[in-house]
């Protein structure tokens, strides 16, 4: 599990740790991490460090000194008249060339264009809000130049400058980073969109900080293993979790097939299908395991392939919502119906999980918030939006995207970004709804056996586990070798710029679910072995 902390918490704990350590000790450790990342991408030519006037620039200066001593031609371009003094002296002493150009693009660019790697040490967590001029214009120009020469690599110190926002918002121009070497703990910009889309890879330098409560969590394989249901010798189809899928219509029969394949691949003990006649035949042809007799279930998914404009579909959705006594996944067209039922006080007591994409979240908020919401407004501030929607709906929200945000009405936050960009394809969401329902059914079955009830945190965590399974299945389908999106402690963000993979269809994701599930089980074996 990875934890994400607020910028203010990290800064406060850093300050304590800095006092306790020797002069610039932590800064040098941070710089070592930056220099290592540069060494990993460096091939030839020179490295240029962009250095601002705070400790972020100090990290970059020490990194340049390390690199120079290791034989890499590193130079420093100062963008402040008061750079960190000791770090500057260390760079000079190492033989790094120091330039102090006038603060405009015309003077700065000729120093930077020859370099093959740029270190972004302009500002870190000390900068609030958008970059101020003239740095803002300079960064915008640099980003345009970088886009024209994609072979150049950018290694950002701590955060891409200007993105140390509390919520992953992007307040102005930013220099996209191939690698972000972040200090002490993951910051919101590392995981929350849209800021996280400005970085391909995030590496963490451990500074041994004593951190308090986290803001968000990222599940890894071993955490998923703790959530999903693994059958024991005495288990049977009912005790493993039964799912009802109220999905698919004459208009969209394929959605029923995909949701069924999703639930089947994620280990449902049994699937009860409530669907249109035309869809039923298709589902049974693709998944003869599905039964069309209704009965007791431990989780329900409703909405995939249902049209809220169609009266019959609408009433099917409402029936499922009213009847829900077990966790209920509300997807696609059913979300706006659920929003109307919550708004009119007819629903809200049920344990619901809504799985909107940005457009559906905007629609639901327009109903619940009584103000106009657009897809763009959601995409500007996804985590704030998801938290608002969770509060208003009383449901766990899984706001889908390259990074999917899972937020409970009690403020539990998970972020999962395993899925490659290839996963954004028609029917992918139907598969996900089935997967989440299957995971929830397993968890609910366990809870029922102990005569307990699911709390919000367990519910949100189970949803995050479902999102992990779906994302990893998509990675496997798309042929990524680092199938879990982690490699050597490095969180990879394949959808955010790394090349690779291949086109996939929603049914390819479903087919790869058992493999993803197996991968989660393997993770535990490894950690158990390590513990011995
Ligand atoms: N503390 C630690 O333990 C460790 C911290 N570490 C590192 O310290 C970093 C935090 O350093 P920090 O606090 O010095 O702030 P920092 O990000 O360099 O920014 C200050 C500079 O930015 C400028 N500036 C501000 N706002 C701006 C704006 N809107 N637009 C434009 N400019 C703006 C401001 O300008 P000034 O007001 O001085 O003219 C000043 O020059 C952290 O991210 C990590 O990298 C590591 O060494 C590990 C140990
Ligand atoms: K930076």
Gyration radius (Cα, Å) is 25 Å
What proportion of the residues form beta strands (DSSP E)? 15-25%
**C-alpha end-to-end distance:** 20 Å
Biggest sheet, in brief? 9 strands, mixed
Question: What is the approximate shape?
Answer: elongated
* Small molecules bound: ligand NPW, potassium ion
- Count helical runs: 19
Task: Summarize the structure in short.
This protein is α/β, with parallel strands linked by helices and 532 residues long. 44% of the residues lie in helices and 15% in strands. It contains 19 helices and 19 strands.
Structure in words:
The strands form three sheets. Strands 4-3-2-5-6-7-8-19-18 form a nine-stranded mixed sheet, with helices on both faces. 57% of the residues are buried. The longest helix is centred in the last third of the chain and has 22 residues, at 428-449. Helix 12 (334-343) packs parallel to helix 13 (358-368). It has 532 residues and is α/β, with parallel strands linked by helices. 44% of the residues lie in helices and 15% in strands. The two termini are 20 Å apart. The chain has helices spanning 7-20, 25-41, 55-69, 85-94, 105-112, 135-148, 188-191, 221-227, 254-265, 277-286, 311-323, 334-343, 358-368, 375-380, 382-393, 428-449, 456-477, 506-511, 513-531, and strands at 2-4, 47-51, 74-78, 97-99, 117-121, 153-157, 177-183, 199-205, 216-218, 242-246, 270-274, 299-302, 328-331, 352-355, 396-399, 404-407, 413-416, 486-487, 490-492. Residues 528-532 have low confidence and may be disordered. Bound molecules: ligand NPW and potassium ion (K). Residues 14, 17-18, 26-27, 30, 52-59, 80, 123-127, 129, 131-132, 135, 157-158, 183 line the site of ligand NPW.
